[in-house]
Amino acid sequence: MRYFTDTEKSMDLKEINRAIETAFSDHGRDLVQMPPKVYITLPEGDFRTMPAYLPSLSLAGVKIVNVHPGNPSCGLPTVMALTVILDIATGMPVAILNATKLTDMRTGAAGAVAAKYLSPKKEIVLGLIGTGRQAEAQYLAISQELDICEIKCWSRNSLHAEKFAQSITEYNARSVSVEKACDCDVLVTTTPSREPVVRSEWVKEGTHINAIGADAPGKQELDPRLLKRGLVFVDDMAQAVHSGEVNVPITEGLFTTGEIKGTLGEVVIGMKQRGSPDQVTIFDSTGLAIQDLAIAAIAMRKGRTTDLPFP
Amino acid sequence: MRYFTDTEKSMDLKEINRAIETAFSDHGRDLVQMPPKVYITLPEGDFRTMPAYLPSLSLAGVKIVNVHPGNPSCGLPTVMALTVILDIATGMPVAILNATKLTDMRTGAAGAVAAKYLSPKKEIVLGLIGTGRQAEAQYLAISQELDICEIKCWSRNSLHAEKFAQSITEYNARSVSVEKACDCDVLVTTTPSREPVVRSEWVKEGTHINAIGADAPGKQELDPRLLKRGLVFVDDMAQAVHSGEVNVPITEGLFTTGEIKGTLGEVVIGMKQRGSPDQVTIFDSTGLAIQDLAIAAIAMRKGRTTDLPFP
Questions:
Q1: How far from B142 is each of B131, B170, B281, CA to CA, in Å?
Q2: What is the SS3 assignment for A94?
Q3: Among A107, A114, A257, B145, which is least packed by CB within 10 angstroms?
Q4: CB-side exposure of B285: number of CA atoms within 13 Å?
Q5: Quick check: helix, strand or coil at residue B40?
């Protein structure tokens, strides 16, 4: 059994996007086993257990990932993750990966795949609501698929937004008001908000939105009127209804599962698509265990390892 | 983060029984978080993911365990397991344990706790149906709670039963017919059978049965008439209905969930008990994630470790 440490080093973002795209394609064709993630509540946060089997890669395993918002105050990341990989022939654990950065990257890659298929423009102004680790992962991954002309970012903490914008040297990036950040071609929301941050009237026709932040019951970032107005695609139906951007509007009776247009997998395989370039499209991402397997397959070819005795 | 290898060495069986008993007591009082285990089917077997949080021990984690019946032909155990332990304050993974032997031991301990509370006799003739690793774990754990006068064992493979009986030097143990093995005070079934092995007429009044083997849909070891005749206690209601001894009879309409008398946790806290010493009692064990956490707590005080970098 091998333990992989610095798994994210020297990984190619384009290669990751393609691997994630293939995983979504398998999901769209119903070729994977992936029960909805299981939540356990801890005193200061929670952890999620995500088992899956991806036959096309002959890969099975489980990601275990926590969310503890108070962690930065003690010098730890809010989100940390470990992935255990099993040999599919014998069920034996063969690898354990530090998957903290891989989790950021595979979520960024899902956003890139969604933007590739759903943005009607290939040269885009990118709006970022929220300027944390996931905002960075999103613009880096999206930049592999679309030409970014400009980045407009906003955070509740304007100092943080300023700093984030300054850290981006390869694009024209600046910190703006939330309303101005929403005036873009591809909008990415990555906040931990529990009430809408993005108002429908700020979003112009033809915008594609990656709604990333909502990943637990009670979380939401978008004005429910945006969901009514746009075409909503989810990563996984069961997970999105339970904990994605649509979870609160569905619970409150403002939106129904029947209004979900389809899954990203169905978009990737061409079964579903946006109608006209003037529609708003929304990708509701909760994060899939098959994304974790797909990126683990790449990381296991690149990372540094320690051998561990097993069985 | 620490990796624990030879976790089962120098562990005290009595200490394990008490820890498992306490975990069941917490379960009976509804003080734990433990969603039903999640099954993923692989080409030659399956694996189960078992997350839980046991507040009384401040312990959270996930056991990942496979069942691959063909493994012995390539020199690997049928069942192998890994447990990941998280720090409950931060969600950070702090330990990984090789849990293959711990799984045997914690299942044996559950049988011992059930026999302690449900066998009307303290000096017992022990019947073992199935003579593999789990049969050994059961008699070793039960011997800590009850006085074993004699062991009668049976296996479909009589040579294997002979060898098993000869390996037991501390008790009068012998290989007998299946009918004779069932004529005992405490009967333990540990086979992978998919049809009843134990017939109701072979079991005398007052016998306590640990039904251990059935742990997946379609598996069963006992004549359904035994379930109707006896008092059935399960380890966990949802898991037992899905994959325990009762799963086939319930699916076939021969038994109902309403006929389940209660859980072992309820027995341990005194909420439920056998009625008279003449009744047959049955403990339907599927294996709980909280058992894995409870035994991990002991193993982490004893095992040899390797330090691994994380985060």
A1: 15, 13, 16
A2: strand
A3: A257
A4: 29
A5: strand
Do B200 and B265 fall within a single domain? yes
Residue A194 belongs to domain spanning: 109-287
> What does the alpha-carbon distance between residue B129 and residue B188 come to, in Å, rounded to a whole number?
6
CA atoms within 13 A on the CB side of B276: 3
Nearest Cα to A204, choosing from A226, A221, A220?
Answer: A226
The side-by-side arrangement of strands in the sheet containing A281-284 is A173-175, A147-154, A123-129, A186-189, A208-211, A281-284, A231-234, A260-263
Strand partners, A154: A129
pLDDT of residue B123: 98
Instruction: Tell me which of B80, B97, B242, B290 to substitute to probe the interface with A (most A C-beta atoms closer than 10 Å).
Output: B80
Best mutation target among A33, A38, A41 (most B Cβ atoms within 10 Å) is A38
Which of the 8 DSSP states describes residue A35? Answer: P
Q: Which helix (H) or strand (E) holds B51?
A: strand B45-54
* DSSP 3-state of B146: coil
Are A132 and A273 contained in the same domain?
yes
Residues B114 and B197 occupy one common structural domain: yes
What is the value of ipTM here, to two decimals?
Answer: 0.94
- Give the distance, in angstroms, between the CA of residue A172 and the centroid of all CA atoms in the same chain: 24
Closest by Cβ to B53, choosing from A40, A52, A62: A40
Phi, psi of A243 (to 5 degrees): -145, 5
- Owner of token pair 């529609």: A279
Burial class of residue A183 (count of CB atoms within 10 Å of its CB; 0-12, 13-18, 19+): middle
Q: Is B63 a catalytic residue?
A: yes
CA torsion A27-A107-A173-A233 (nearest 10°) is 40
The total number of structural domains in chain A stands at 2
Question: Do both B69 and B145 map to the same domain?
Answer: no
Q: Are residues A20 and A129 in the same domain?
A: no
B273 in A contact zone (CB under 8 Å): no
A43 touches chain B (CB under 8 A): yes
CATH number at residue A69: 3.30.1780.10
| Positions of chain A with pLDDT lower than 70, given as ranges | 7
**Candidates B47, B88, B310; nearest CB to A43:** B88
- The amino acid at residue B163 is K
Asked whether the bond before A311 is cis by omega within 30 degrees of 0, the reply is yes
- Cβ within 8 Å, pair B90-A76: yes
Q: Are B66 and B148 part of one and the same domain?
A: no
Give the pLDDT of residue B174.
97
The predicted structure's pLDDT at residue A6: 73
Q: Is the dihedral of CA A42, A43, A46, A47 positive or negative?
A: negative
Count other C-beta atoms under 10 Å from residue A214's C-beta.
Answer: 26
A140-194 pLDDT, tens digit each: 999 999 999 999 999 999 999 999 999 999 999 999 999 999 999 999 999 999 9
pLDDT tier at B173, thresholds 50, 70, 90: very high
Q: Nearest Cα to A96, choosing from A282, A292, A279? A: A292
Q: A87 and A182 share a domain?
A: no
